[in-house]
Amino acid sequence: MSALLSVQGLQAFYGQTRALHGLDFQVEESGITTLLGANGAGKTTTLRAVCGLVRTQGTIEFAGQRIDGKSTEDIVRMGIAHVVEGRGTFVNFSVEENLRLGAHTRKDKAAVHDDLEQVYSYFPVLRQRRAQQAGTLSGGEQQMLAISRALMLRPRLLLLDEPSFGLAPLIVEEIFQILATINRESRVSMLVVEQNASLALGLADHAFLLETGNVVMSGAAEEIRQNDAVRQSYLGY
Amino acid sequence: MEIFLQQVMTGLANGGIYASLALALVMIYHSTNHLNFAQGEMAMFSTYIAWTLINAGLPYWVAFVITLAVSFAGGVVIERVVVRPFEDAPVLNAVIVFIGLLVIFNSLAGWIWTYDIKQFPTPFGDHPVQLGNIFFRAHDFGAIGVTLFVLLVLWAFFRFTPLGLAMRASAENPVSARLVGIRVGWMLALGWGLAALIGAVAGMMVAPVLFLDPSLMSGVLIYSFAAALFGGISSPGGSVFGGFFVGVAEVLSGTYVPFIGNDLKLIVALIIIIGVLLVRPSGLFGKVSVSRV
Amino acid sequence: MDTANAPTGTVAAEAAIRRDRARTWRIWAVAALLVVTCVLPFVMGDYRVFQFTLAFTYALALLGLNLLIGFNGQFSLGHGAFYAIGAYTAAVMIHQWGIHYGWTLVAAGIVCGVAGFLFGIPALRIQGMYLALATLALALAMPPLLKYKAWEAYTGGVQGIFINKPHAPFGLPLNPDEWLYFLSLGVLLIAVVVAHNLLNGRTGRAMMAIRDNPIAAEAMGINTALYKSLTFGVSALFTGVAGALSCIVVQFVAPDSYSVFLSITLLVGSVVGGLASISGAIYGAFFIQFIPNVADAISKAAPWAIYGLFLIGFMFVMPGGIAGFMNMVWSRLQRQLPLARRRGAEAGHTGRTNSKT
Fold first, then answer.
1. B171-214: pLDDT as tens digits
2. Do chains A and C touch by CB distance (3+ pairs < 8 Å)?
3. What is the pLDDT of residue C300?
4. Residue C356 in this model has a pLDDT that exceeds 60
5. What's the gap in Å between the CA of B126 and the closest CA on chain A?
6. C5 in a domain, yes or no?
7. I need a labelling partner for B118 at 20 to 30 A (CA). Which of A224, B270, C61, C279 fits?
8. What total of structural domains would you count in chain C?
9. What whole-number percentage of chain B has pLDDT above 70?
10. Gap between the Cα atoms of C235 and C212, Å rounded
């Protein structure tokens, strides 16, 4: 399978400070890849770099096209949806308005309607709360909303930044199971950034381990999960 | 009593103008967190454009609509060319740019059309409207009506159209808006365009009363700021209420508060502004926002 | 520092030597400029002398504004109000009570300093854009207040107040215009020295810390409230004295001279001259004094159009103003300064490192 997203020598800058020092990784078509690492390793920065939210050097290729240097709005229109850390919900809008905003760039009204139904079937609680103000939802519900809004784009690649953050373990499990289902049924590729390594390795096919802006290890998720030495020294469990 | 009602009516008519300009100010504040000090002069300039068209023989409402279109385009261009580079700059740099715009529009108007006072026609006729024993100016009624109509159309636009939804989303959370593909930069430009359009309406409604010269909007601007602050700079409905309130307060305090009279009415605006900023900066209907240090 | 024996061959040491030499050059340049300034009134026509005198008063006003905006990070679209208060204080004292104009400068300073400090207190709770708005309202309220009928007896109402032109004291051999020139220059120089000492000491550092990061400044134990109000007071004091001086120089005050456009003019002067600098006040003052005269020839509206274009243009291209530009030119020149005139061998040695800097 060819790589849907391919990153080579990626550097990222906040002002004059360099946060990523030359990353190489790929996301396979219809696969799930995870970026692991501690706080400050550069995981969020990497996702931002893919979306054009920070200044970068190096190559980012998506579906065969260079996207480094493009504006965020253009990258989104190519089919990359980003669920940010902290959800990024439009808190003063209703659940359904949030979802419709996710489909802002789409012209195919009928298909948008189908996707709305699809999303409500993945997350029934959202259908219940469709008219409710998004800011009043619980953390878990907002995460479901954020993921659903991203899916409303009908993306080819879904970027998820710490989907487990601040959520109760049961909810997190539920969400990760649904993510696996979505990947199976819709064949959407995913790049998941996580601090919770065991959760991420359970979901992903491939894993890349980041440490202060560099990739220090990569491989099949299953192998890394089985490797005691790696787990203890890098992943802490 | 009749004098009182007449005064209230005048106050409401003025208030409609203040409400319109206040709405324009709120629109820009809402999307950019900037106070556009040049809003009044832009409105005055638009009014001169309308005057030129009417003088060239165009019917009033045709000139009205063309002016709205030109003002809208002008607002968009100004945002893209002059304001955009200062989006991320320190706030006071933007203030200086706005003052620069204020001064340029004011002097351009004086240069092109001279400082002579001009008449601006009212589309509502000269016949006074009679209610009971009191005579009201037809224009006052008309101005209030036009103001309310514009506000209604705007409300519907933001509430029911996808573009309105996108603009509101951009104002609330620009990063998330970009991530759903909304071109936030163009939303800001659109906001400026709409604000310029509303300002043009305000200018054309007030010109028949105050007569057209480059200083047309300078008094109006500060009252509109007072109105927007009083009602809540983050609340469109609040600022409209604030506009009517300030309009009535200005007229009544001029008539009934002895030491203010006609001369110190501007002090009313000053007191409202400083009072609101000290006591309740978010205004009557605005949201109180707490920022963490 | 003994530059003659300082070690050459390290970049830092060489920069220090250059700085010292640059400082010497600077002092000679300023001294030369002062000499020229003192000679000028005797070679220029009376009207020119008057224009320069007015420019000095503007420079004093801009010094006040720069202290507030450039060095302390607050804002004022209403400094014309303090200029007006100073001017009217002087006019009323001279016209109504026959007080000597020298004392009016002191009185104007005190009155405006207190007024500024008092305004600075509520201003503590109003930040950025909103402070701009509040001061704009203040500026707009000034002409109506000055025209107000209740105290017309003192202020002269719409017609304003005329005062007599002062003559040189102690029988000095100066005509009135020359005397006013030197008076204004003297007051300006005193103010420059005061400002310079203020800014280079603890107070100045506290002011600038508040400008750059108010929360950090507060956390470091700086009483930001006190410093900000004090800065407003000192800033108003300078501008108030400038107003009083202008009243004496022009011998006339009237409400419409102190409209919001005066405040905007002062802002233009600060921005064009350089907001965070003392020399900027002087560059800016000459700009706002002389450009309108040139632009007036084109059209009545032209001066303001130019002001607007310069405001926006400078924000785009030269936010540091003329002073910022001159500083940049000066430090470029400084780097070209030779380290030593004698010692050919060492000059050759440093010749290599020259190319790196």
1. 888 899 999 999 999 999 999 999 999 999 999 999 998 889 88
2. no
3. 73
4. no
5. 46
6. no
7. B270
8. 1
9. 96
10. 18
Q: Is the pLDDT of residue B69 over 70?
A: yes
Domain segments of chain B: what residues? 2-214
Find the CATH number of the domain harbouring C123. 1.10.3470
Rounded to two decimals, the pTM is 0.84
Residue B114 has pLDDT above 70, yes or no: yes
> pLDDT tens for residues B5-50?
888 888 888 888 899 899 899 888 888 888 899 999 999 999 999 9
Residue C101: closest CA among C184, C217, C43: C184
Q: What chain B residue is nearest to C76 in terms of C-alpha separation?
A: B92
The DSSP symbol for B82 reads I
Helices within C40-151 (DSSP H only): 46-69, 79-97, 101-123, 128-147
Note whether residue C348 is domain-resident: no
Q: Which residues of A touch B175 (CB under 8 A)?
A: 53, 84, 88
**Residue in B168, B172, B180, B184 to test binding to A, most A beta-carbons within 10 Å:** B180
Q: How many angstroms separate the Cα of A129 from the Cα of each of A126, A134, C58?
A: 5, 9, 64
The answer to the question of residue C177 being in a domain is yes
Residue range of the domain that includes C129: 28-342
Place of tokens 């900037």: B34
Answer whether C87 touches B (CB < 8 Å): no
Question: Which of A30-34, A202-206, B133-137, B166-170 bottoms out in mean pLDDT, i.e. has the lowest?
Answer: B133-137
Nearest chain B residue to A101, by CA: B180
User: How far is the C-alpha of A197 from the C-alpha of A86, rounded, in Å?
Assistant: 19
Check if B277 contacts C (Cβ < 8 Å): yes
B99's tokens: 């003052």
pLDDT per residue as tens digits for the range C280-304: 999 999 999 998 888 877 777 778 8
Residue of B nearest to A76 (CA): B181
